[in-house]
């Protein structure tokens, strides 16, 4: 009986084994292979001389954790492949970012002016068209309702077709609707035009915050939101100052509407010099377009470009169900509660202040008893009232500074708790009616802390969501928040008609709900790089994973 000779595998010699291991160490660590690495030498399996193929195991493409997605110089040096976070962090805050902030800032300025427009001209419209109470209330209601729809719709479209194109198209519609509002011959046409204006404002506000946060380095994000909100407040002040000079003229409200549209026209011109968000291009596998934007960022900021391959991927854009799916479920619900509570407080307090100033509460009659009466016996705003509105708007400016500073120094979550608790304390003090001057200070502090709360919330939310769904998520949260604004204005007006103290108790209850929600939030986003890819069970988004390499650009 012949024995079959036993087959033995010849072990590789030392040089081949070391060469194979060296080739393996040069493979990319991001779950993809570049063209350069694909042409390198033999693998360890070939060096060993094996003909047999090993048993296949299900391949899992690792999703980068925040530490990988952030600018890790070690990973970049090993692979020669960089991602968009490497570009943004290395480029720093330079001329490219400042140009984008200028254009988006003009948009924010114009949006703020358009939002405040209805508040300032509503009494004049009531006199000219003999509006009843329902028709009068419909004007701001239509603006807020379409604002919510525009925010949600535009956010979804921004994730699907790009941030730039949504902003550009909304801006064109905004110019047309603003000019048509000034020329409206009837109440019905005016309401339609203001509805379109609200739709575009809601879309622009959500998409512009997403866009600007995606091109700003991590350590400058709080500063960026602060600048954005300062410009927004500037638009509100501009609208009040403009009304102070033109509303007393014949057909003054038409001049007001037309001059309000001028910043929108200026913004539309500069919009054509903007680029698409590089993060959007990267996750949609548009390598050539993304590479052009990356080169432009390096060139304008005068930074030496990174050498190697830019990592791109084909990531499905996020839909509405993704906002509420794991691992975002709890966080999204908590953010929704915060948006509703914050906008309830911020917009509700502007309905509370006129009632308190009218002398019906605490005998505060410094401003609001000076209302003018025109020749048709219609009440319109007085000069003192315009000045008071400016003072109240300016009360939010130090709140923005405090919100940005607290968010960077102690974190997003502690900052929210601090601003909410402090706001609740000063809201409660309003019920004591100590004296006029102390009540004015308490009102000022309420606006201060409500604004700080809003500032931190807008810093936290874009950091919480990944790029593939950030536009949709911001649009939905901002839209739902405007429902809180509508509820705040309506409920405050209703409660004040019975007793002012009831509205104050309601404000305190809302702030307690918001504070309890912060205590259950698990994720802190301070110092983390923005996420671009989809979170998975193998690579969840966890607090504390991210780090940012400064690249010496401090």
Give the SSE layout.
Blueprint (H helix, E strand, L loop, with lengths): L13 H12 L9 H4 L5 H4 L18 H4 L3 H7 L1 E2 L1 H8 L3 H35 L3 H29 L1 H20 L4 H28 L6 H26 L5 H9 L1 H10 L6 H6 L3 H14 L8 E2 L9 H5 L4 H32 L11 E2 L5 E2 L2 H12 L1 H14 L2 H18 L6 H29 L2 H32 L1 H20 L35
Parallel strand pairs: 1-2
Antiparallel strand pairs: 3-4
Helix pairs in contact: 7-8, 7-10, 7-11, 7-12, 7-13, 8-9, 8-10, 8-22, 9-10, 9-12, 9-13, 10-22, 11-12, 11-18, 11-19, 11-21, 17-21, 17-22, 17-23, 19-20, 19-21, 20-21, 20-23, 22-23
Unreliable stretches (pLDDT < 50, length at least 5) are 1-12, 16-75, 366-370, 536-554
Distance, first to last CA: 81 Å
Order of helices and strands: HHHHHEHHHHHHHHHHEHHEEHHHHHH
Structural class category? mainly alpha
Helix % is 55-70%
Q: What would you call the shape?
A: globular
Oligomer: single chain
Q: In words, what does this structure look like?
A:
The protein is mainly α and 554 residues long. Helices cover 68% and strands 1% of the residues. The protein is built from 23 helices and four strands. It has helices at 14-25, 35-38, 44-47, 66-69, 73-79, 84-91, 95-129, 133-161, 163-182, 187-214, 221-246, 252-260, 262-271, 278-283, 287-300, 320-324, 329-360, 383-394, 396-409, 412-429, 436-464, 467-498, 500-519; strands spanning 81-82, 309-310, 372-373, 379-380. The strands form two sheets. Strands 1-2 form a two-stranded parallel sheet. A hairpin with a 5-residue loop joins β3 and β4 (379-380). α7 (95-129) runs antiparallel to α8 (133-161), α11 runs antiparallel to α19 (396-409) and α19 (396-409) crosses α21 (436-464). The chain is globular.
